[in-house]
Design a protein that fits this description.
The protein has helices spanning about 5-15, 35-50, 55-75, 85-105, 115-125, 135-145, 150-170, 170-200. By secondary structure, the protein is an all-alpha fold.
Amino acid sequence: MKYEERMRELIVWLSDPRDGVLSFYAPPDHITEASIQKNIQIIAEDVNNKLPEDVKPDYLRLLLRDTFRELRTIHGSRSWPSSKLFMQAAGSIAARALKAERETEGKTLGDTPTPEQINRDRIKAKQPVADRWIYGIGARRLVSMGYVEEQDLTGYKSSLFHSAKDVYGNDSALELEARWKERDRTASEEIASLEDVSTKTDGF
């Protein structure tokens, strides 16, 4: 599924007035409709970043069903769950799905390429990748490991922005782009910190 297709599916999953996830919770007091829509976009973006990439619509819906089930387990309140809780639930389901897939195929970590290697090859072949490999910790790992260069990601960043613009409009796309760039900055600092710790440890 393309980025805009996944986001469309996620927004319906969250906001459908009949059975969307957020319809089961009470929104914050005095929140405006514009703020509700912006929060839905943010949550959808965060959940999208946690779930497996390159999945078919039916499988994505199964993952979302299980994510809602996990969310109910960790969030007992009737108030809106935070974006952090949505990410925790989606991350947990994604990890289980990956483990189940490897067990089904009878493979171990040593038998399969790493996610970094898989997405390096996709980027070099100009194939679609999830946005975590365009901005954020995934992208920063690819660069720091020497798998790709910044220029390899330029076209992906442009495509991601225009996809967001088509779905949300120019202003919201610019806001999302700013969040993606901040995710990049934070990830770069995190990797630099880990490398610094590793260097100090090697010195002992």
